[in-house]
Amino acid sequence: MLRHIVMLRWSDSTTDDQKGDAAAGFRALPDRIPQIKRLTCGPDLGLAEGGYDFAAVLDFDSAQEWREYQNHPAHRDFVAATLKPMLADRAAIQFDLG
Q1: SS (HEC) of 1-69
Q2: pLDDT digits (tens, 9 = 90+) for 52-72
Q3: Which CATH code is given to the segment(s) 2-96?
Q4: End-to-end CA distance of the chain, in Å?
Q5: CA 18, CA 96: separation in Å to the nearest integer?
Q6: Rounded to whole angstroms, what are the CA distances from 53 to 6, 20, 50, 62?
Q7: Mean pLDDT of 12-21
Q8: Which residues form the Stress-response A/B barrel domain (predicted)?
């Protein structure tokens, strides 16, 4: 099992509606991309300074399924249309859950 974690920092001009669209878009991905076995996401709680604004955790059965997700049209469209216009920064990591 592979875990993919992505952390996003919004640009200063990002609106609350855009943030809501991003969260809804992430939550809709498992219905459109069967390779996603589990997805959780949400905004930072602001408990510590310097954090990112939003994170998503996605689980896949294999690295191959993660690659298929990366290239899936639904993922590519979501990133291009929803996320990229509002992003200031992005960090991601993938690791084996063992």
Answers
A1: CEEEEEEEEECCCCCHHHHHHHHHHHHHHHHHCCCCCEEEEEECCCCCCCCCCEEEEEEECCHHHHHHH
A2: 999 999 999 999 999 999 999
A3: 3.30.70.100
A4: 7
A5: 32
A6: 11, 12, 9, 28
A7: 96
A8: 2-95
Q: At residue 37, what are phi and psi to the nearest 5 degrees?
A: -90, -30
Say whether pLDDT at 98 is over 90: no
Please report where in the chains the tokens 């291009």 appear, as a residue.
Answer: 80
Other CB atoms within 10 Å distance of the CB of residue 56: 20
Residue 7's DSSP bridge partners are 55, 91
Residue 73 has pLDDT above 90, yes or no: yes
pLDDT per residue as tens digits for the range 24-54: 999 999 999 999 999 999 999 999 999 999 9
